[in-house]
Amino acid sequence: MQQTNKKIIPFIPDGDFYYVRGVEAFQKRKFDNATKWLKKAIEANPNEPLYRCQLSVVYTELGLYYKANQELTIVLQSTEEYVDCYYLLANNYAHLGLLTEAKKYALAYLNKENDGDFTEEAEELLQLIEFEEEEEDDWELEDEDELLIYQETAFHFMENLDWNKALAVLNEMLILFPDHKVIRHEYAQALFFEGQHEEAIAMELTHLESEPSGLYSHTNLALFYYELGKKTEYNHYISKIRNVYPIHEQQKLIIATTLARTAQYAEANKRFRMIKQKTVSPLSYFRWYSLTLYEMGNISKAQSIWEIGCKKYPQLENEGQPWRN
User: Can you say where the TPR repeats lie in this chain (predicted)?
Assistant: First the structure.
């Protein structure tokens, strides 16, 4: 039997091989595997920007925004070709709450790319940052300590649904702090639940004329019209809220509770899951999140959230489980 000498060519994986494996793992949401393969791709070819860009996207999905930005910064230091990096940086900085940096990179992206893949997202991010900056400006008051005491008092009454007492405090706050916008919206809500429906709605409609994108006006009006059974008006305002994804945890909570209070439980559940409980967990969080979970059929978790809330806020026990009321 004649033997033929065959030369076996060994398979040596290159950067593209690892990159493809990394992308496949990412698409399957196996982020640990994706990270491993993409790091191997970078080791095989450190000068390929695409590998680092994809790794940054994986880090963003994992919430490792600083690590993501480190990779993106390395890319921009080596080449200006990957303009999308500017938007990705802006997005990550926004998640970190560094709005000045987010604004800088969003503007840089739009300056370099008039009609890119992320043009719409960059413009929406800038609008959101502008809104956030306006909200922060409202808090810059000389009498900050006094304001804080009033706010905590009013907030306590509103959280406990004691609208009459809340209204008395908020009325005084309107006189002492007339330029503080949030007080007006809280006053309108207390006014509505004390039975003065027309006046409360008129107040929020007036606010919308001067500030058409006002989040608090839209959430209040959606809630007011839902309570009054006016479906057309309610649908108009709730549709505006559905498209808003705030950066600040308190604003995330306002949207989540508004959706829950108007029986939009599936959407409310998504929004509650976006909230960092350790950062924002007032009484209303436990009241409305537990109800949302119950209505979604997650009974055991609903009871667990309710029990945690009762330990933190004993007055909740007096209310009784919200799904029984």
Answer: 15-48
